[in-house]
Amino acid sequence: MIELIESIVKPLVDHPEDVSVVENEREHQIVYELTLHQDDIGKVIGKHGRIAKAIRTVVYAAGSSSKKRVQLEIND
């Protein structure tokens, strides 16, 4: 899943070397924390959050086979 998120996000940003994804597994959910370069946050979020919503939709669909809830957080 980490590779999927990175493969979606890296082509969108100007600083792909600063993209990192960390997986935190909790009792009933898996949280993926996406950290970016400060200048690239707007590019990943997009106008009115459309790009972030699309990325989250793909991640949720890919994680639907898991019994745990999958969540993506974009860190500043």
Automatic annotation (TrEMBL):
Record key words, sorted: Cell shape, Cell wall biogenesis/degradation, Chaperone, Cytoplasm, RNA-binding
BP term (GO), one: peptidoglycan biosynthetic process
Family matches, as InterPro entries: KH_dom-like_a/b (IPR015946), KH_sf_prok-type (IPR009019), KhpA (IPR020627)
GO MF, any single term: RNA binding
Main location: cytoplasm
CDD domains: KH-II_YlqC-like
Pfam families (UniProt xref): KH_KhpA-B
GO annotation, cellular component aspect: cytoplasm
Annotated Gene3D superfamilies: 3.30.300.20
Location of the protein in the cell: Cytoplasm
Family in the record: Belongs to the KhpA RNA-binding protein family.
Subunit and interaction comment: Forms a complex with KhpB.
Described function: A probable RNA chaperone. Forms a complex with KhpB which binds to cellular RNA and controls its expression. Plays a role in peptidoglycan (PG) homeostasis and cell length regulation.
Protein name: RNA-binding protein KhpA
Naturally occurring in which organism (per UniProt): Metabacillus indicus (Bacillus indicus)
